[in-house]
């Protein structure tokens, strides 16, 4: 035998999947994300078909935003105080029951108001389980495999963003209640997979959550202007520029004539809903292979501005393929913004503050899609024009970018997303 040192082990791109805890959890997570995507598409389709009112679509976002705003911080405390696997399982049981209720109401054509109530409860359960789902992730794999696991987790999340609406479009073309039943079934499968995991019990947090604990995260974000700029820019861009909740209107009334011959409006909706996820997935692959950003702040501002322009073009378009391409572009550009924001959160936040700062970020960003959906539906209803709603949102996004570029010079100057943050970026402003 030779005494020469052995070669270092070759890189294993599938290392995380060789760990049962990881693939079992990711399978369950992928299923519930696909199920929620299918259910979300079915909800929008059914409510618009029954009401033909854009405001009804906006209310879907409104009732789902309320739990995210009110319960995100308590949910973080629950994730640290109790067994995370049980928290997730109990919440998923609630999700399954809500989906069963939606299926029954859909079958009997029950009151829309009861559907809103079930959507509120469903959003409550999802909000309560989300921090526990994030907190349990590091326990699934050893430290040396964590980076590989995070890359696969991100890719699978984008995959579910494509698979959910596509599955939903296929299902609702023959049965809307079946989409809700599918989500209930996927939730129960995830619960079963959770209890196959072999995890050490997580230590319970000492003490109680207090108002001062919450406010310390708010004060930290407020004092770091570049962090405040990225979070608020992303918030207003999605709030003003989101067109997702009006897609049933476009699929049914505005783009049906230009879609490929024989395509059912439900299939048109599925194609439109999946487009942003396709763009985000492609951009995620590109960013992984491109060199690190050298001017991240300026790149984020340009990406959000491009998001606004693509939204305006989508609002004006009556060509199916142009509309689909613009939605892809919004997903791709939004992914750039997300990468910059998430990286800055890690770069500018000390380890002892990350949980509280992440909670603040979750409240602002987690509810922006739903609040934006309500805003889009309300504007479309008031002015009797979904086109005006989408275009005005895109213009509003461009105005926000211009204002933020002037108001937050630290964001314009921010450079590479690597190493230590420059001193002027981490000081309070």
Explain this structure.
The protein has 429 residues and is mostly helical. The chain folds into two domains: 16-209, MFS general substrate transporter like domains (Growth Hormone, Chain: A, Up-down Bundle); 211-429, Growth Hormone, Chain: A. Helix content is 76%, strand content 0%. The chain has 17 helices and no strands. The chain has helices at residues 20-51, 54-81, 84-108, 112-135, 146-172, 176-194, 211-223, 225-241, 247-254, 265-289, 296-316, 320-348, 354-366, 368-383, 386-407, 409-413, 423-426. The chain starts with 19 loop residues before the first helix and ends with a helix.
List keywords for this structure.
mainly alpha; 17 helices; Growth Hormone, Chain: A; globular; 429 residues; 2 domains; disordered N terminus
